[in-house]
Amino acid sequence: MRFHSLAIIIALLSICASVKAEQLRVDHVVIAVHNLEHAVTSYRKMGFTIKPGRFHKNGLFNSHIKFADKTGLELMAVTMEPTDSISNAYSEFLQAGEGGAYIAFSGIKIQAMQTKLHKHNIKHETIRSRLWDYVVFPEESGIDHIFFIENHKSHIEEEWVYRHDNAVTAIKNIWIEGGPNLDKLLLLFGAYPCTNISTPDGLQGTVYRIENQEIIVVPPKKQNVRSRFLGVGLEKKHVTLKEYYPGKHGIFVEFNSNVHCNQTIHNKANAANMKSRAAD
Predict the structure, then answer these.
(1) Of 44, 175, 176, 218, which residue is 20 to 30 A from 227 by alpha carbon distance?
(2) Which H/E stretch holds residue 180?
(3) Rounded average pLDDT over 167-174
(4) What is the residue range of 256's domain?
């Protein structure tokens, strides 16, 4: 079971660099699937509008589900023999089954991120391109299932992309396998631990608050196996009834999940800790 001592975690905040929690946010999550067409059909039946993606020369093929808060789900399949490290990583991941391959965070400048990662001796690699920059982490880090992204150019979607028959408008929370290195990373970039809970699929985890979202960190189900994100909680406009879709291509999908952290209390506590860390 994973029940952190919140007192210990909060004490760790005093050694973390000062980054506003409101900056860090979930950008999108990537769900690796064996058959993209089948996955698109499955999510369309749940009421999602699917934006077609494209074929990548390394063998990957994707589709997108985008929400009004500029977050989203990405469905990713390997359609031919992998030709680079990225497509090979997806291929190896799928050997253990479909599921949550990556969580992408945004909201922090890559340069500022690099400075803090270097300062705290966290191994990472920066990948730069014309449209965006990434920060990724090595396999042995225990945090190789997350990455940070900074877009160089904003993209305006057509309105139909955000209109879903199920009325989903945002990612509210995610639950993700992790250990001490993930805890350290979240604290370093301003996430704030507020409580311990049971996830809808019965796992015990610690809730971290970031911006208007929550990250629920649970222990890995299997040792010596690459960690995954396990579930996503989505917000539906003007609808309060909860709905559950367990095991949808390897992840648990929940509509109208609970908010576990009191935002007012979080803001006051975070502000107090920001003052204590201002000199770092």
Answers:
(1) 44
(2) helix 180-188
(3) 94
(4) 6-275
